[in-house]
Specification:
289 residues; alpha+beta; Glucose Permease (Domain IIA); 2 domains; 5 helices; transmembrane helix; Dup_hybrid_motif; Cell_wall_metabolism_enzyme; M23 family metallopeptidase; M23ase_b-sheet_dom
């Protein structure tokens, strides 16, 4: 693994960002207070603005640093949703150190029409082929975080289920990083680089805090815990062990095969990107590892 130097820490921004759940709760409390308490509107309005502004503080961006080259965390044939090769931040937000995160999932069967039904969509995670697949360490290092006690919930693969996810799961931010990324493993690779593997299957962690791991070692299994619509692996590199205090780091996967023109058309009616960025598939491109 190369290019593992880290830059200015921006400690105050990390400290504020790390308290995001507190600011979010205080923001909501200020909104409620403005309606139910006999408090001057100027006071509550100021509190709302201050706590909302604090919710938006993030660590300094690391977008312009060279990508860290790591091993691929999965084996076999996969496709990508939310790739930094398509946009940065890849998930639309920079919170939780996920500006350059990637979601990896099994391709849909050939001939699958992209569709999103109005009803249904609450399926058991075991019905998805990605569920239970092995997750591998992208590089050697020391395990600093393991969480494997959160449940693998039902999928959210219809408009009704998606609305449920936005309303109910949207409140996960109030519970901190673990409520969002679900069961997860974090590895310290040294020189300010950490990898995070999210939505791990409940009870599947194959490592413990303090373990030394090598590249390719099995860490656990793909699950459906946390803020997720169906089983997949969310993986990212970041510059701090705590996602709320971290900025995302660019990365590339070594040794993957990216067949020209191999795309998964089962996800979107738009034509997927076909231009290849070596080491980082774009959205809906199929790759082999």
């Amino acid at each position: 693994m190369d290019d593992m130097t880290t830059r200015g820490s921006g400690r105050w921004r990390r400290a504020i960002s790390g308290l995001f759940p507190l600011w979010a709760w205080l923001f909501l409390a200020s909104v409620v207070a403005g309606f139910v308490l006999d408090v001057p509107i100027g006071v509550t309005s100021l509190a709302v603005l201050v706590f909302f502004a604090l919710c938006l503080v993030r660590p300094a961006r690391q977008d312009d640093r060279g990508p860290v080259v790591v091993d691929c965390p999965v084996r076999g044939t996969w496709t990508v949703v939310h790739s930094p090769a398509s946009s940065v931040p890849s998930h639309g937000v920079r919170g939780y150190g996920q500006s350059h995160a990637i979601d990896i999932i099994h391709p849909r069967a050939d001939g699958t029409e992209p569709s999103y039904p109005l009803f249904g969509g609450f399926e058991r995670p075991e019905s998805f082929s990605s569920f239970g697949e092995s997750i591998h360490a992208v590089a050697g290092g020391t395990v600093v975080t393991v969480l494997e006690t959160r449940r693998d919930h039902l999928s959210r693969t219809s408009w009704l289920a998606f609305a449920y996810m936005m309303v109910i799961d949207g409140l996960r931010d109030l519970g901190g990083a673990a409520a969002v990324v679900g069961n997860h493993v974090v590895i310290d690779h040294g020189e300010g680089v950490y990898s995070l593997y999210a939505h791990v299957r409940k009870g599947s962690a194959a490592v413990a805090v303090g373990d030394r791991v090598v590249a390719g070692q099995v860490l656990g299994e793909v699950g459906n815990s946390g803020n997720t619509s169906e089983p997949h692996l969310h993986v990212q590199l970041m510059d701090h062990a705590a996602p709320l205090r971290a900025a995302g780091l660019p990365m590339l996967f070594s040794g993957i095969k990216q067949p020209e023109g191999a795309v998964d058309r089962g996800w979107t009616k738009k034509e997927p990107e076909t231009g290849i960025e070596p080491g980082m598939p774009a959205n809906f491109q199929v790759f082999e590892a």
